[in-house]
Amino acid sequence: MSPRPIKLRKISNPPLVSGFKPYGAKDTDKDPEVVFLQYEEYEAIRLCDYEKLNHLHASEIMNVSRPTLTRIYAKAREKMAEAIVLGKQLIIEGGKIYFDSEWFSCKTCGCFFNNPEKQDDNKECPLCNSKDIIICEEFIYEDEESFSRCHDICVCPVCGFEKPHGFRIPCRNEICPECHQHLIRKGSLHTKNI
Amino acid sequence: MKTAITSTGNTLESKLDQRFGRCAYFVIYDTETTGMEFIPNHSKDAQEGAGPAAVQLVASRDVRKIISGEFGIKIKSLLDRLKIQMIVLKEPEKTINEIIEMLNKK
Asked: What pLDDT is recorded for position A143?
């Protein structure tokens, strides 16, 4: 018998950054190891420790049972502790989640907005009218396949070779077939200088 | 269409307030008539319920969009029901004037 499917967790606020990196490591050449904090775990930390809600209240907001919330929260604390103690980088991604209402983010002005009028598709940013918006709507990260929705590209800083970003594979771990350089994320701060 | 912007002061040079319920002033800007109004937020120092009171205030002005730095949990469901669009702008250095200019670029 297959196990009961995991209930989707509701995320009210997407995280502002996609991860955290330690600094001041002795061996600066090596990229620190990675701990993956799932979206739902981030949300549990936000609700319990930042908003200071109790587990019952937080579980209602995330639309899961109280024991489930406690499990997610415990896991989140464990991962954060691991990252801090062992000096690993923390990447926030994955998890079985959906976003509260339809949320969009504008790439031009960096704002987030929702769309209360469900019937009309707003295809532009309400603030700067840019068409360059991405939907954060009901991302359901179930497996690797749905992660291919991530449209990021790894690029070689030397020859400009490009390949789609692989799920859970840091760009630095990919090697350019032409000039054997470590790849970097396209559009990241480092690539702006190229 | 009317837009509410949370402001830290009552001039055009004031910065965007990062909180919704506890902002100092609301700027109600009408994109059609380009008229604007500054409303002081009386529930700013309230013990609790500042958010819902603020929602009531802006909803009474028939606002369709709200620009602020953050919205609390209670607010989101209220605004969803009232069909008011929330715009989260995480730029505390933006002035009211700059935001209005962005809105006018239509």
From this structure: 39
pLDDT at A123: 66
Q: What are phi and psi of A74, to 5 degrees?
A: -60, -40
Q: Given this model, what pLDDT does residue A79 score?
A: 95
List CB contacts (< 8 A) between B79 and chain A: 116
Is the CB of B73 less than 8 angstroms away from the CB of A61?
Answer: yes
| Positive/negative CA dihedral, A79, A84, A88, A90 | positive
Give A-chain residues touching B80 at CB under 8 angstroms: 101, 114, 116
Interface residue ranges in chain A relative to chain B, Cβ cutoff 8 Å? 12, 16, 51, 61, 100-101, 109-117, 126-129
CATH class, range B2-104: alpha beta
Looking at residue A185, what is its pLDDT? Answer: 75
CATH architecture classification, A101-149: Single Sheet (2.20)
Range list of β-strands (E), B1-106: 2-7, 25-30, 36-40, 65-68, 85-88
Alpha helix (H) ranges present in chain B?
50-60, 73-82, 96-104
**Inter-chain residue contact A61 with B84, CB threshold 8 Å:** no
Q: Where are the domains of chain A?
A: 1-97, 101-149, 150-194
Model confidence pLDDT, tens digit, residues A117-169: 654 555 677 777 777 777 664 444 443 333 444 567 778 878 878 877 766 66
ipTM (interface pTM): 0.71
The residue of A16, A113, A118, A122 whose CB has the most chain B CBs within 10 angstroms, and thus the best one to mutate to test that interface, is A113
Domain boundary assignment for chain B: 2-104
